[in-house]
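[09:14] KT: can someone run the structure on this one? pasting the chain below
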Amino acid sequence: MDVFDIFKIIFGIIITFFIIQFLLSFLSSYTQIGETSKQISSLVSFNKVLQDVYTTGIPTTFTLYDYDKIDFYEPPNMITKAGTLRIENPTVFVPEKNLLLYRGELDLEWWKFYFIYALPGTNILYVPMNNSPLVWNVMSNLTNILPSTERLDTKIMFGFGCNGSIYYFSTWERERFLNIIGYISTDYENLVDNDCSDVGIPQFYKIIRISTDYSEKPGVLIVPNTSNIGYVYVDGRPYLYKNPIDIVYAIFGGKGIYEYGNKEFFSKLGLAIDLKIRESQMLALKKGELCATYYNDFISILNQLKPLNNYTNELEMKIFSEKLSDSIEKYKELEVMGCE
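[09:31] RB: done, structure tokens below
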């Protein structure tokens, strides 16, 4: 074997090495592309199902296999290792593999506001700190806006009261729990022990304390000022609420969804008011003098309601809540009078 043959062998080995390196690099890149493509496909599918639930109102469950690839959720954007996904409608989202997708709504009689829950199975554990009608009212309103999961695999269950870290009555569905709130409130002293500890509470449990007085408590504390207005404290951070959706935003999503959800709410409310005013003006001309009087009163209330949109201002939200209640009552009068 001469020198030239040895050179050819060495050269062949070098070339083979580089070819193998190239193939390994290519396969690695191809695998990464495949994984990224799979993640994108999963997230796009998730977003499509969210939109379907928002449109139809039909709840479902969803397996989000790549939930651990989600870096964070800053509404309306979900930031993932595969890129950014925009979720158009307000969505209360807690990343987990098995999710409940459910459309929540706030019914104002003359308009409905919709939003989406994307939550894992959760136990809601209420701890009423005192026996006030405001406490029971908040509990009832909040429960009523949370998902009903009787025919779904992923469950939202409700519990009540505790003794240390042992919680009672933690296996009720929403409708059943709403039915017994009145009974429990009448026997509060015998059924409720509000000396609760958060130590050792399992994952996916939400302890919600409700009190007419503020006190430094871990986790979630709701302090109602009136039947509609109050503050929810999440680890000490206050959020002003004007309806139970704000409480849901604060508890499950924090600042991001609280701010985005409120901006969407007031933006859509403004459009709904404009449309309702135009519709009412046309109907006032068609329905006769008596109906015209009611419609004009309704229009006046809507005009007063529209500029009230500072959701962090307590005084403004009190006025907003009053005007909103007035609009609902006036609309009901229109229905009773046969004007609608």
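[09:33] KT: thanks! Residues 235 and 310 are 24 Å apart (CA to CA).
[09:34] RB: yep, looked fine to me
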